[in-house]
């Protein structure tokens, strides 16, 4: 095999240029990147075997119409997907083997923090032994709020402060903090959002979307009163999407919407172009920014992750809410978070107990020209909750598309 650089001059405007050829059986449009300082010159590196090859250049000009979606096609796609999801149950999400970690509500926050880190997970259902049932979920978002709250009352966080807080006490304090109290000033208990094994996948997906949670515990009880519940699985949009992709992969031709590029839908949150306004600010940070600024941005912008970029806005890494558990390593949470950079925080997770295949999924990318089906297949992989949309060649960040974005579109 040899690498053959191809440069192509296109004087008619536009930024989306592609090459295909006999070297890839004409099966894939390879995006060409714009050469810096030469707005009409595009390049790509293609792996070709020895011999003669034909190639073809395709370009989308500024005057060329964007692929259109008819409302009929969208509704037909949504109907077929809804019918499929309604015909399958949460039981089908259960793996043949596996484990689910649950935490006792009387566990100290510090111990819970370390357990999640050691298990390589970002959340766990909570068990109340006195009530004999699951009462909630402890997530990475809780730890972010804990560190921010305790950090507001002093320069550093002490281990003693974490040791004195049980999960139950934190949840009660959180209710007061969010003013979720009744007329007598008592905290209003939040009911656990869960699913039964016989619930259909559409209802499970809607529960996740409407409640804004990452997972829904799948709980089974053989008693009518719900006693002696069994925790079977943690259902996520990723698992549901995997079922969808497995079914529609070989019949996607009957759903033309799945073959559309994501920029034409449009899907996700995009970086505003010059002169454009955006109702939702797009969050990005440099690796030298403080960890406290990242945590504040995650909470205030209500996002699950922040792209970390260089001075040219090219993607370097991504900081997610789940990365907070890496602070348990070496008790890094006791440090002043204003003095720790995002780069240092990400380095803490490099040698964590998280399986390599999960760590490698942390910074997944796609192109604006990728089809909806291709994006769905990437998001269906374990551990992937969002894709960073980048410009071909430069890796300049253009947007983010998440599991939530995909399901909000598919379910209307």
Structure description:
The structure is a single chain. The protein is an alpha+beta fold. Among the domains are: 2-60, Immunoglobulin-like (Sandwich), CATH 2.60.40.10; 86-240, CBS-domain (Roll), CATH 3.10.580.10. It is 28% helix and 22% strand. It has 12 helices and 16 strands. It has helices at residues 71-86, 109-119, 140-151, 159-164, 167-177, 201-211, 237-248, 291-300, 342-348, 356-359, 372-379, 403-410, and strands at 2-9, 16-21, 30-35, 38-48, 55-60, 103-104, 123-128, 133-139, 215-220, 230-236, 269-270, 305-309, 315-320, 365-366, 386-390, 397-402. A 5-stranded antiparallel beta sheet has the order 1-4-3-2-5, with no helix packed on it. A 4-stranded mixed beta sheet has the order 11-16-15-14. The two termini are 46 Å apart. Residues 354-360 have low confidence and may be disordered. Residues 93-155, 278-337, 358-412 form the CBS domain. This is CBS domain-containing protein. Keywords: CBS domain, Repeat.
CATH class of one domain: Alpha Beta
The total count of strands amounts to 16
What is the distance, rounded to the nearest whole angstrom, between the alpha carbons of the first and last residues? Answer: 46 Å
Mean pLDDT score, rounded?
Answer: 83
Low-confidence sequence ranges: 354-360
How large is the count of helical segments?
12
CATH architecture annotation of one domain? Roll
Helix and strand succession? EEEEEHEHEEHHHHEEHEHEEHHEHEEH
Structural class assignment: alpha+beta
Supply the CATH superfamily name of one domain.
CBS-domain
Major beta sheet, specifics?
A: 5 strands, antiparallel
Estimated helix fraction: 25-40%
Shape: globular
Strand order of the largest sheet: 1-4-3-2-5
Look up the CATH topology of one domain. Answer: CBS-domain
- How much β-strand is present in the residues? 15-25%
Q: What is the rounded Rg?
A: 24 Å
Keywords: CBS domain, Repeat
Protein name: CBS domain-containing protein
Organism: Gossypium barbadense
Pfam family, one: AMPK1_CBM
